[in-house]
Design goal:
There is one protein chain. This protein is 51% helix and 13% strand. Helix 3 (76-92) runs antiparallel to helix 4 (96-109). The strands form two sheets. The chain has a three-stranded parallel sheet with strand order 1-2-5. Strands 3-4 form a two-stranded antiparallel sheet. It has helices at residues 6-18, 32-38, 76-92, 96-109, 118-131, 141-154, 160-168, and strands spanning 2-4, 26-29, 43-48, 51-58, 63-64. It is built from seven helices and five strands; from the N terminus they run βαβαβββααααα. By secondary structure, it is of the alpha/beta class.
Length: 171
Amino acid sequence: MALGGGVIGDLAGFVAATYMRGVPVVQIPTTLLAMVDASVGGKTAVDTPAGKNTVGAFHPPTFVVIDPATLASLPTRELRAGLAEVIKHGVIADGAEIDAVCALAPSLEAGHAPPPGLEALIERSVRIKAKDPWNLLLGGNWQLNKRWSIVAEVGGVLDRFQATGGAMFRF
C-alpha cells in the first residue's frame, strides 16, 4: 500500500513489481500531482546515481483511492505543481481541462485549498490519464508530452508550475 505523494507511490509500485515477480499494490495519493499522474497507469521507477527514473517497471495498481480532502493541508505551490500536470492533459487530450484550471485559479489564490470544483477536475484528469497511461496511443502528441515532461523535470517537480503555467498562464 502506497500512502503519500509520487515518490512514495513510485517506490511502492517498483517494489511491488519486483517482489516475487509482482504483487498487488494499492495507491493512495496525497498530492494533486500524484492523484492525476503518478498513481495512475503503473509507470514506476526509482532514481540511481546514473540518473532519474533509470530503474523501473510497468506495474498498474490493483486500485487507487483518491480523497481530495487530503489536499487541504498542502501549500498552494504543491497544488500548482499538480495543476500543471492537469494543464498538460488539457493540451494533449481535452482543452476543457485548461478552462477548468483557469476557473479554479481565483479560489486557489484566495487560499481555498482545495478549491471548489477540484474534485471534478481530478476525476476528468484521471480518466484522460487512464485512457493512455504509458503515453503510447497519443500519436503525434507523444512528442509534445515528452517535451513537456523534459521541461517540467529540469527544475524538479515543484518547479513544474513555473516551467509551464507560470510563463503561459497567470494564476
